[in-house]
Amino acid sequence: MDDLQLNISVSQGSKKKATLKNNVSEYKFKSKPTFTGKIIARKRPVNLGQKNIDTKSVDDGPKKKILKASHTQTGDLATNLRDLSENKGKFQGKNYQDLSDDIQMKQKPRTGGWISSLFKNNPDVPRIGQRAVKPIVEKVFTSKTFSELDIHPHSIANLQQNLGLKELMTVQQNAIPVILCGRDVLIRSQTGSGKTLAYALPIIEGLQAIRPKINRHDGIRAIIVVPTRELAVQTYELLVKLVKPFTWIVPGLLSGGQKRKAEKARLRKGLSILVGTPGRINDHLRHTKSLNFDKTGCLILDEADRLLDMGYEKDVAAIVKAIEDHKKAATYDPIAMIKQNAKKTIIDDDESKQAEQIVNKDNSVVAKHHLTEVFLGKDRQTILLSATLTKAVENLAGITMVDPVFIDTSEGKAVVADSLKLHTSNVINKEDVSKEKNAAIEIETGNEINIKKSKEKISVKSEEGNKTALEARRGLKSFGGINNSELLSCNTGKLDNVNENNITKDVNDETNSDSDSDYEYFKVQKELESKKVSVETINDVIKPSETGNTFVEAIKTAIVEDELVLPATVNQTFLIVPMKLRLVTLCSLIVEHCVLNKKGGKMIVFMATLEMVDYHSELIENVLTGNNVKVKKSGNEKNKAKKRKANDSENQDKSESSDSEFEIDYQEANEGGLVPVDLEMFSLHGSMPHERRMEVFKQFRTARSGVLICTDVAARGLDVPRVDLVLQYCAPASATDYVHRVGRTGRAARIGAAVMFLLPNEADFVRYLEQKRIRLRQDDESKCLEALRSVAPAAPSVQRAAIALQARLEHTAHSSKEWLARASRAYTSWVRFYSGYPRDVRQYLDPKLLHLGHAAKAFALRDTPAALARRTKSDPKLKKERPVNRLTVHDEEERKRPGFPKVKIGFNSRVMNKQSSMHTASEFDSGLPPLENSYKKKKKN
Ligand SMILES: Nc1ncnc2c1ncn2[C@@H]1O[C@H](COP(=O)(O)OP(=O)(O)OP(=O)(O)O)[C@@H](O)[C@H]1O
């Protein structure tokens, strides 16, 4: 109804006042309460073919303003529009949608019924009581320091001086000694708890300890796979800092979006540690000969659950397979071995001598060629990490890990579960230590441990005395050629020194214990080696879980319980905001947090789709830091100069004329104008050009304050300093996503806040989160608009300020066809996304309960849903639903993948909702253009 009133008021002509009055009443009475865009199109008395004539509104609410509007013989137009509609498209050579858009753009925002409908007909906001939920907490820091770890003093000094790190975090204290021992580890620890350092530090420690020193030509020793480019860059940068004291270790980055050529050149030069996204690594595996994993001793899958649930599982499996294949091929290639030796001799003769010396000193089973031997060995250490676990991770662990240790740092659980379950009467057999490489490891587990690592024969039988062999093997496997006494001290070296009688005796003392025998082993070892720091640390770590869990039990329990841990330092709240008020509430929170906050707040806003991100960031930026503002801020132009891009100014140019017209209306309406807002806006999503994406990420990281509007591509692993507010504008697709989004604040025990917007009909989503032991408090949404008073000081009330802002937003959204198209696209993408929520949350986020008319308003659109649907239909950009990127599975491509389809992996158990995967797949694209086929290439040439 409101829309109709506006349409009519816009179209009145002063000369035909009487006639039009009749028309008005006619329209008013004839229109139905359920008003549709179709009716608007047919009845709007506008002739777009004629020139605009100044007309006077006849019945335009309290203000009665003069408006510019086009008008013509109403009857003709009605007939024409009807014809147009019936003829489905073409009208006087013009496209129907063009005409409709023209009409939309020529409408003027009003302060009458139309705009004030922002506060009308909104559903009641329910008050959700808080249930008694006891969140799981994790102690982030320990009282120990890095200097207590058995790592190189240069590393400790580097950590202190260059990174300012002294105290150990819990996960670091638990994980570092275990990783240094070469064990496969699955780590679950809350967001921002220092997992990156927990694996990066021991890797570098292991690498720097190899003698003779490794060099970049030796091959890739460790691979770190992460799901997003930003995380890859971040991890790479940390590695660069960590290897400072060890210049011979070279980290490298393959993150997608960059030119293949440059990356190929980098690979040819040689790397010691490779960080990359799975798609890109896999791409190079297929197309870059110099990428070889025959020396890779360590594979790290960070954000393992994400890697598996975003369609990357095949890429991950291909990487695992490639490592195994390359290592196998290298092990049995005598020519390669000879070449390797020859190369090493040429490269560094001194180091060869050094190697000899070590061998002589050591007099161990590792002879002169021990290093080469182990480099070419088939063992691999695998480390999986995430703040959240899924069944897929458990399966992946089963496939890729051998006898893993599970580290869970949450309090109350504090599980460090070891998969090795040994018979109590085990005797350590020294010989086994020396034979460790070829030993078929026979252990009694008492559990059905799913050890499937393809090339390894591990018989799960009851046998005595082989545990040590396994330990020794573990100790050597990750960084071959460990002549490093420090490393050996916690592995073979130490075990060699262990007095077997003592162990036998001590273990036998524990006659009642058989389920925790692995623990007992370490306990005994601890007692024996108590004076030695390194073992002490390990034994500190390998404590029994109170329930006596083994790895499998522990991880199963963790997954089945499905309880999530969030930093206790984050204040989590939710706001139930009626749909129509969402956009103004968002603006208000941005102003409150980033403008009125004198300290300068930094916030991240999560939205559902990339179209939403693009549209909202530009719209809000344009409106809050609009033309008027920029003029006033001319003295402060420095920072802004770089930021504004060509298309922004283009849009502004296009809307300039109508903007000034609008200003008159706007001020006449006495709603006040926008005040200057010093605000930096950033946007980030997976389909942005790579350079822009990296630039935004870096800028936001260094910014003192600002807003980053992004998709879930920024939800994983990103460590942006000083982010003190995370706002979830769209509900997350799962509790896990909620955890990772919130985890962008409150990192390393810092204070943070997280707000989630929910619609009144989505309120029960909070109950869903409570089931996962996430506790949130409801905030008063009515107070959230307060900050808008500063934006529209002339407005007599908060509501009027919100109305003024909404008017401004709508005006901008209708200022050009490009804006309209973008707004429609954002709206449509969101509606599609909404109907694609996964099954387990759909009962709380039900698309059937959406009011699409209200939703349009939240996108600053004036169209009805029907009109928007029509615009969508005619928008070619919205027709292409499936993003065509590297993740799009083509049978052709599938056959080309190394290891496929031969490798059947079991962790693809989660069936993704088709639509939701469609919406998010592009977020995790490797950024590569599809490869041109050779025929096309030839033709081009
Ligand atoms: N020992 C330490 N003392 C103080 N700060 C630390 C320490 N270790 C790591 N940090 C800091 O903690 C922050 C979070 O670390 P990191 O990114 O590794 O967390 P994470 O557990 O990987 O988080 P996520 O699960 O979100 O990926 C970083 O800023 C890092 O510099």
From TrEMBL:
<dbReference type="GO" id="GO:0016787">
    <property type="term" value="F:hydrolase activity"/>
</dbReference>
<dbReference type="InterPro" id="IPR014001">
    <property type="entry name" value="Helicase_ATP-bd"/>
</dbReference>
<keyword id="KW-0378">Hydrolase</keyword>
<feature type="compositionally biased region" description="Basic and acidic residues">
    <location>
        <begin position="872"/>
        <end position="897"/>
    </location>
</feature>
<comment type="function">
    <text>RNA helicase.</text>
</comment>
<dbReference type="InterPro" id="IPR025313">
    <property type="entry name" value="SPB4-like_CTE"/>
</dbReference>
<dbReference type="InterPro" id="IPR001650">
    <property type="entry name" value="Helicase_C-like"/>
</dbReference>
<dbReference type="Pfam" id="PF13959">
    <property type="entry name" value="CTE_SPB4"/>
</dbReference>
<dbReference type="GO" id="GO:0003724">
    <property type="term" value="F:RNA helicase activity"/>
</dbReference>
<feature type="domain" description="Helicase ATP-binding">
    <location>
        <begin position="176"/>
        <end position="407"/>
    </location>
</feature>
<dbReference type="GO" id="GO:0005524">
    <property type="term" value="F:ATP binding"/>
</dbReference>
<feature type="region of interest" description="Disordered">
    <location>
        <begin position="870"/>
        <end position="941"/>
    </location>
</feature>
<protein>
    <recommendedName>
        <fullName>ATP-dependent RNA helicase</fullName>
        <ecNumber>3.6.4.13</ecNumber>
    </recommendedName>
</protein>
<feature type="compositionally biased region" description="Basic and acidic residues">
    <location>
        <begin position="646"/>
        <end position="657"/>
    </location>
</feature>
<feature type="domain" description="Helicase C-terminal">
    <location>
        <begin position="589"/>
        <end position="789"/>
    </location>
</feature>
<keyword id="KW-0694">RNA-binding</keyword>
<feature type="region of interest" description="Disordered">
    <location>
        <begin position="631"/>
        <end position="662"/>
    </location>
</feature>
<dbReference type="InterPro" id="IPR011545">
    <property type="entry name" value="DEAD/DEAH_box_helicase_dom"/>
</dbReference>
<dbReference type="Pfam" id="PF00271">
    <property type="entry name" value="Helicase_C"/>
</dbReference>
<dbReference type="InterPro" id="IPR027417">
    <property type="entry name" value="P-loop_NTPase"/>
</dbReference>
<dbReference type="Pfam" id="PF00270">
    <property type="entry name" value="DEAD"/>
</dbReference>
<dbReference type="InterPro" id="IPR000629">
    <property type="entry name" value="RNA-helicase_DEAD-box_CS"/>
</dbReference>
<keyword id="KW-0067">ATP-binding</keyword>
<keyword id="KW-0347">Helicase</keyword>
<feature type="compositionally biased region" description="Polar residues">
    <location>
        <begin position="910"/>
        <end position="920"/>
    </location>
</feature>
<dbReference type="GO" id="GO:0003723">
    <property type="term" value="F:RNA binding"/>
</dbReference>
<comment type="similarity">
    <text>Belongs to the DEAD box helicase family.</text>
</comment>
<keyword id="KW-0547">Nucleotide-binding</keyword>
